[in-house]
Amino acid sequence: MLSSSTITKLKKNLDTQDGTFLKMFQALGDPVRFGILELLSKERSLCVTEIARIFNVSVPAASYQLKLLESSGILKLKRMGQMKCYVVATENKEVKSILQLLAKGRTMHIPR
Fold it and tell me: pTM value?
């Protein structure tokens, strides 16, 4: 049984979290976005048009999904002239943790 001081500490820790993991897991709750992360963890970098073709969706639909992943901190945008390409934000420690968790149950490549 937890003591009241332990419960207070646990509550305080929950209150101080910034919601980073929550935002990331919400973004990954969609099968297409989860698939995009898996794909980019293996391919390093893909452009919006390539992702649209792979997932058989329109370019605006792919762009929307990628923007959600970018805004959650999972992906980074890399512009190559007129093209928008995305990479996994591996410098983000939370993203690295998510990739490591996913790699335990899958044969996923973790970019360094």
Answer: 0.76
